Amino acid sequence: MRKTSSSPRHRKKTLSLPLRDGYFPTPLLSSREESILIQTARTHHAAFLARHHDIFHPLSGHVCHAPPASSSSVAFHAHAAIAATLDEVYVLLANLTPDAAADAVAHSPDVLDMKLLHDMAVTEETHVAMRWTALKMPPPLKPRDFCILEMHNGQINHAGHRTWALSQQSISFPRGCPDLQDVLSLVRGNVLSAGIVCTETPIHGMVELHVYADMDLHLPPWLAKPRMKRYVAALLADITTRVHEFRLAACVGAAYIPLCPKDTRSHCRCCAKAFHPLLRRKCRCRSCGDVFCWGCTQRFKFDHASQHAQRVCVPCSNHADATLTMHRSGEILALQSTRSAAAPKSPWHQKKAHEDALLLQLDTGETASAPSSSLASAVLQVDAWDSDDGR
Fold first, then answer.
1. Which one, 89, 290, 302, 328, has the greatest CB density within 10 A?
2. In a shared domain, residues 120 and 243
């Protein structure tokens, strides 16, 4: 009877996501294993860049057409021009430390857990890493997990602009990343080819962001296609929001802010409406320290390890973008997060509305006619190929 307590069925009940640190065995890699992994990552990285060779040319509004690598996979390509810097995108997406990986899980609505298993610095600008990732799936489907080998590489393109590329592929490594289907009911997916390419543009403060995904989720195409489309839309929206929060956190922590006493304010400093104990409550802005109503503030969680969120007024939120974004045609392309002033006040509705706007363009393949304050109106195109296309 005692032996059954250590059975996979018992462990399934006691184990949950996110997994504790150190759950995966991280055996030291021999020099031969490390060389094989680095060479495999190099080969796939070169093939990834060759397959999507248009990433080193100016953004022309066209999608790189390519069939999926497998008849059971669905391939996606999306690109967007966003207000950010290459360094900001690298800090938010590289995830080469356990803390960075945990922060990415806290931000992403689709990533259930992520663990960095191995990190091999090849050169100063090139890293090869192995990581485990678990993705959320809509019920009643089971979550999918992946054992991924990836390569990070920075270089200069033909126009003299910096480019950072991340390529990923699935790898079998039972010794360090075993299958968890019997323990957590996770279905092991297959990343045939995926990656992110970020390129600086001639306009300072703007980057071109390309996202590629060719995955086999072990789902029928009619179900895998909308799931992957939602994943790409959420990823682009999440990058925009994280850049905004990254900048806002830098402004909030830059100096000591004296707090204004609430009893000295009878009206909101933004909308100038009178406060009410029930209908219009008072709250302080974490950035400027003044008193605003809840409708004129936005909720941000700068430290996702903490359970406490901070409120920042709309003017300070927009100012954090405007001060760090350059002018284009006389107009400030201020990077607005999904928590913009015009968006619904609920954080869930804000992200849902933002992703729905992205999905509208993902379905039509159209681009916006003029710049606006959201990523949905930036240059965005997506192509999807199911198993019958291009064959």
1. 89
2. yes
